[in-house]
Amino acid sequence: MTRLAKALVGEGPAMALSSISSSRIASAIALVVSTSGTTSSAKEVGLSTEAILTSAKATNNYLGAAPGQIWSLLLPLTHIAGVNVLVRSLELGTTPLDLRKHEGKYPHADFTAVVPTQLFRALNGDNELLEHLKSAKSVLVGGAAVDTQLREQANIAGIKVIESYGMTETCGGCVYDGNPLPGTKILISDSDLIRISTGSLATTYLNDPQGWDHLVEDGYFQTSDTGEFHDGKLIVTGRSDDVIITGGENISLSAVEKVIRDVFTGVECAAFAVNDSQWGQSLHLAIAGSVQPDQLAINESLSSQISKAAKVKRFIIVDKLPRTSLDKIDRQKLVEIALGDTR
User: Is residue 159 located within the same domain as residue 251?
Assistant: First the structure.
């Protein structure tokens, strides 16, 4: 906390809480955060003091957080979501409760942030965490989309969930429950891609400045997410970079997963692609958990609801789906599992 505070006021070097390649950076950058990189190489995101504090103040204001109130830290500090808990606490003049390795009964906190997997665990057996989340005034849930059933279950349990949307490049969440925070503007491009203008926007990719410049136009950052507005709220519908070309047709991996979840209740799955000389990219499906639907029925559903090209060429059974520390499906790891034919 002390080092972070010094970095933010320019009295100490910039901070990086994970391994990065850069050793010297522009003085305007106070924090460097490496992206998780589930489908490509990680980017080293440079964040200014202004962006970091803008994000923290906007979140605290949105939640109605007052000086002296307490955040709990349940997320890794190698990602922006964890660092944000520290900065929000600095703004409130408090120190967060470090509960990353906590066991037993949790102390009370006014606010906290989790990923969907932690919310799922709280609602399915982790009673200590459940009570901690229920007692909080608000619980930010981000890092991945929150399943509708999971959110309904949380609401019934009395957890005050706020779904957060953002990324490292926007200093974390800048849209809460579909509502852009003050100072954040959202545009949807002709190709349905979400573009974001915000006071918490990063400065550059330290290891790919040209790539950054390519993504920023007129102050708007071009995301890889697709979305739409419904009743004035932003709905994230998928990712453009999860589209594969198989048999000459474009197929969305998230669309494949959605069809399977909608048709086969309780199935836990992840779609991914492996390069293939015949198909270009071969659609694969990993299935975990106790629900194992009929594979022929899966392909019949995909064929009727998406396309005949949306046929799973290979199913693999895993003990659990590999995920990054922020709960995103690690598709690259699934490719490695498929090619290595190992668990």
Answer: no
Amino acid identity at 79? H
Residue by residue, DSSP assigns 267-298 as -EEEEEEEEETTTEEEEEEEEESS----HHHH
Has residue 108 been placed in a domain? yes
Domain containing 92 equals 2-237
CATH of the domain at 326: 3.30.300.30
Residue 272 phi, psi (nearest 5): -155, 170
Contact 32, 44 (CB under 8 A): yes
| CA atoms of 343 and 322, how far apart (whole Å) | 10
Indicate the length of the chain as a whole number.
343
The alpha carbons of the chain give a radius of gyration, in whole angstroms, of: 21
What pTM did the predictor assign? 0.80
175 and 26 within one domain? yes
Closest to 212 in 3D by CA, of 4, 82, 220: 220
- Assess if residue 242 is contained within a domain: no
pLDDT tens digits, 109-131: 999 999 888 998 899 899 999 99
